[in-house]
Amino acid sequence: MKVSFETESDRETIELGRKLGSLLTKGDVVALIGDLGGGKTCFTKGVALGLDVDKETVVTSPSFTLVNVYEGHLPLYHMDGYRLEGVQEFIDAGLEEYFYKDGVAVLEWADKCLQLLPPWHLKVRFEILSPVSRKITFEGTHPRSEDILIRLVEEN
Ligand SMILES: Nc1ncnc2c1ncn2[C@@H]1O[C@H](COP(=O)(O)OP(=O)(O)O)[C@@H](O)[C@H]1O
Ligand SMILES: [Mg+2]
User: Fold this and answer.
1) Which atom of ligand 1 is found nearest the CA of 36?
2) What is the pLDDT of residue 117?
3) Which CATH number belongs to the domain containing residue 78 in this structure?
4) What mean pLDDT, rounded, does the chain reach?
5) Closest CA to ligand 1's atom 15
6) How many domains does the chain have?
7) How deeply is 123 buried, as exposed, middle or buried, from its count of CB atoms within 10 A (0-12, 13-18, 19+)?
8) pLDDT of residue 106
9) pLDDT at 63 over 80
10) What is the distance of C-alpha 30 from the center of its chain?
11) Domain boundaries, position 75
12) Taking a C-beta distance cutoff of 8 angstroms, is the pair 118, 29 a contact?
């Protein structure tokens, strides 16, 4: 199942992320794909809000730390594969285990480790249409991610 949305501002992208975040449950894995500036971190801010992470908390790209953990009604594990050379480095850094913990994993540059993603992951692709607009395409190929998408569409 594939669903696309267009957002016309970073605020709209945050709002879409917030809606997704409110639908996520323990063990969900959200795989973000798209160029620098596409809106992956912006969208993750929204996911954090949807998980009830304090809105004063600043969500930034975890490029150097590899993973940032935010406390919401579920923990949010925000990861970034940008600097990783390959899947082995991802595994060695202990990042794979965040897919199987008590919270929700959101991974930027997920195309760097597609083969490690559990089958129920939800892909989110970001395309830059103009300086202020983005096409955001969700794709799920497992009943679990499809169920999330059906509910996201119902809310929009
Ligand atoms: N519709 C939009 N959605 C998301 N970000 C947008 C949008 N329009 C403009 N922007 C800007 O694009 C940039 C996206 O940055 P960021 O979320 O860090 O991207 P990424 O993490 O994919 O590199 C921000 O500066 C944001 O203000
Ligand atoms: Mg980013």
Assistant:
1) 23
2) 97
3) 3.40.50.300
4) 95
5) 37
6) 1
7) buried
8) 98
9) no
10) 4
11) 2-155
12) yes
